[in-house]
Fold:
Amino acid sequence: MAPFTSRLVSTLRGLALPLVALALLLIFNALWTPGFFHVEVQNGRLYGTPIDILNHGSKVGILALGMTLVIATGGVDLSVGAVMAIAGAVAAQSVAAGHGPAAAIMLAALVGLVCGLWNGLLVTLLKLQPIVATLVLMVTGRGIAQLITGGLIITFDDPVLAAVGNASLLALPIPVIMLTAFLAALALLTRSTAVGLFLESVGESAPAARLAGVPVLPIMLMAYALCGLCASASGLIEASYIRAADANNAGISLELDAILAVVIGGTALTGGRFSLLGSVVGALFIQTLTKTLLMQNVDTNIAPAPKALVVLAVCLLYSPIMRQRLMAAWQRRGERSPA
Amino acid sequence: MKAGLGSIPIIATAAVLLSAMLYGAAAYPNFASFGVARNLLVDNAVLGVAAVGATFVILAGGIDLSIGSVMAFTSILIARLIEKSGVHPLAAFSIALAAGTLFGFAQGSLIRIFRLPAFLVTLAGMFLARGAAFWVHPESLGIVHEFVAGTLNTQLTFRLPLGPRGVSIPLTVDIFIMSVLGAGYILRCTRAGRAVYAIGDDEHAAQLMGIAVGKVRAGVYAVSGFFSALAGVVLVLYQQSGNPASCTGYELDAIAAVVIGGTLLRGGVGSIYGTVMGVLILGLIQTLLSFHAQTHAATGGGLSSWWTRIAIGGLMLLFVVIQRLVERLAGKSR
Structure:
């Protein structure tokens, strides 16, 4: 029991900053946003702002989970928004072509994996910088999605696909269940096997990892492929919300939310140590922030500005140089006033 | 890197540009005309000016994702200052240029002082500038000021006696050309310009040479901010309006133009003239697609607009791969 408790404590300590940030935001809402915590049950489903945040935060959370793996290897994936659009387009078209929902979901997942693998191959075999490698798919992806939909918004009324974003299980929206499943699966993969250690060693130093016998190439390919898979799941959820695949607008600028969620969650962009749970908390923080701004009647178009400021502030708090300066200032204060 | 190998990407750029032109001339009878060439310049002056700024950042080994948002911000700022606050257009332009430069400088300082990753800071900058643009004015705002429509856009347009009807060159194209020449001079002939190359090539070596790495690092973002704001000015002149929602994704086009123009994304190798060719290639893709659409409109078999994105992405990939091959060759020959 003792090692478990100590592990729990160290996990919570790593999560301190995102949790405190989230708590501050919730306290702000409790004081100044009327009706923020109001939740009611209708037809066996929960309704209310917190549920909304959980629902949409799950979409960002799943995206952030995949992104965490890539960032842990020292990379980044800018193409996840475009992959979401492609996955939604593929699912909608395959249902429209008369295939069942299971086939549509499988196909979307497969396409996500392939997109991720493509990014991974560019990064590993061609040794492109991850920003550049994934920029190619970011630019091209939306074009491909439009190619699949023929430039139209493809609507679908398949009950199973529509349920992904709109139905509930055990009173919780399906995306929340999906997020939990993804988190559990990835946590199992990275923490119960050596994969997590391998990811961190690749992120710390790929050459050193290679010399230590870590299978660098498969590990990196896996990270990008899983990121693509997560993106396709988010893409399905987003398409399901509106029962349509909109190649132009699906997942737009969500790559930013996902990256920010990961950073706020405490995973350094330079790679190495990562926290899956942190990314989920980060995603919930981002979604709560978005919702708070909305409920404070900040125009949706202006909302990105305060969001950017908060994110910059958090990043500054994480930067080693800022920490050094704060520590130095703290110590100087201690010296001056011996308590 | 050997000089000979380093010029392979730009030779490839010239080859792509030339073949795109030749293909157009061969496939469409009206393509090889002064009018098409003029439109190519006029329609791509905005992107061209933005890409000049992006070239500085990328040469120094950085990346600026805030370009499109800063353009939108300056365009709506200018429109609001002129139309709502009664500021003279020239003063409005100056304020916008100063704001853009300051914004870029702030981003560069964050990157320099706190060693935050450039893409993260400029990503936040992209959000910030976009939000600020909507805060300045929530929707598109037309400019009816006499000085803009009359003096700048009409009197300062001059006619070249080319072709049967002459070719009119608006002020926007002049700004584009001056930007390119100015940037070319700075990058090639000044100490600061050479420092940008040195840092992009090998930051450590540049430091040992006594170059103020940090200052140049931060400075390129200020330069990029300035050119983004200038692109905003060109946009205002081109459309005679400001729009907070405009230019989404322009940073990607600017980066693509720089990469297709043969500048190594790793930094250190490339030129502003390559970027101009990159901009023209992106413009030609659009032109060719519109010619294609016109010719095939009757049969309904025109290529659709999304092929532009796919073509740009494909070209980018091609050039990035060429860059890798060149670097590998250079590494072996060392």
The two ends of chain A are 38 Å apart (CA to CA). The interface with chain B takes residues 76, 122, 126-129, 131-133, 135-144, 146-147, 151, 256, 259, 263, 269-270, 299, 301-309, 311-312, 315-316, 319-322 of chain A (CB under 8 Å). Residues 33 and 110 of chain A are 42 Å apart (CA to CA). Residues 216-242 of chain A form the longest helix (27 residues).
